[in-house]
Structure formats: structure tokens, C-alpha cells
Amino acid sequence: MMTPPDEYASVRYLVDDVAAAIDFYTSHLGFTLHTNPAPAFADVIRGSLRLLLSGPASSGARATPVDNAGAGRNRVHLIVTDLDTEVIRLRDAGVAFRSDVVDGPGGRQILIADPAGNLIELFQPAT
Predict the structure, then answer these.
(1) Residue 113 belongs to a domain
(2) Are strands 41-46 and 107-113 parallel, antiparallel or unpaired?
(3) PANTHER family from the entry (predicted)?
(4) How many structural domains compose the chain?
(5) What is the rounded CA–CA span in Å between residue 67 and residue 82?
(6) Per residue of the chain (127 residues), what is the pLDDT tens digit?
């Protein structure tokens, strides 16, 4: 049986340093620590999103086939109300940006990276 739809939607990110990932997501992006049962794994929550932070020794990381490592350009998508303010706040905090602000028909976006290089898209919908 699949997870009921009223539970968290979970995304797994492979990270090099679980503690650094916890600090990044809780300090900069408004996540709260849910569990951290071992140095190899933690999960953080924001709204209905549960982000699984799997270190090199976690079962999730070991299960990834080598030929699929880094496949795709997947990213977590977070909606913000004022992209310019978020860019200034995160830049002042030393967060790594992976793109410039991009304007599109649906809104504006920018990519940042967590300490392991996983992408997060900050998106401000068009008004």
C-alpha cells in the first residue's frame, strides 16, 4: 500500500555532510528538524514537504546505482513572496547561487545549492 495522500510528501537528497545539510535547511530555508537518528541520516520538514537528508553511509545513498548518480536536473521548488529580498538575505548569509534570476511567463526564479550541491529553486509567481 502506498503512503496515504494526507501524509508528508518526501524527497531524498544525497548529501556529503548531514549536519551541514541540517544547518543549511533550518537556518536559511525555514525547515525544522524532524528526526536525526544517526549521523548518516536526518529529515527536515517544511509544510507538507519532508526532505530526507541521506549521508554517504545511509541506505538511501548506497542504493543509488552509479550510472544514475547526478541524473537529471531535479530540485526542490519553494515559493517565495519577494524573490529580491530572499536573494539579498541568502547572499548576505553566504549561500551559493547556481543561476541568476530568470524571468518567465509564470514568474521569477533563481537556483541555490545546499552544501552538497543539491538544487533548490526559489520561485515568485507572476502577479
Answers:
(1) yes
(2) unpaired
(3) GB|AAF24581.1, GLYOXALASE-RELATED
(4) 1
(5) 38
(6) 556 777 888 898 989 999 999 999 999 999 999 998 888 899 999 999 999 998 888 877 765 555 555 555 678 989 999 999 999 999 999 999 999 999 888 889 999 999 999 989 999 998 8
In a domain, 38, yes or no: yes
Question: Domain holding 58: CATH number?
Answer: 3.10.180.10
DSSP helix/strand/coil, 73: coil
Q: Are 21 and 52 in contact (CB under 8 A)?
A: no
Classified as helix, coil or strand, 97 is strand
pTM for the predicted model, two decimal places: 0.80
Q: Output Rg (C-alpha) for the chain, integer angstroms.
A: 15
CA–CA separation, 86 and 66 (whole Å) = 35
Domain of residue 113, residue span: 9-125
Which among 23, 26, 59, 12 is positioned nearest to 40, based on CA atoms? 59
Which residue in this structure is represented by grid cell 543549511? 24
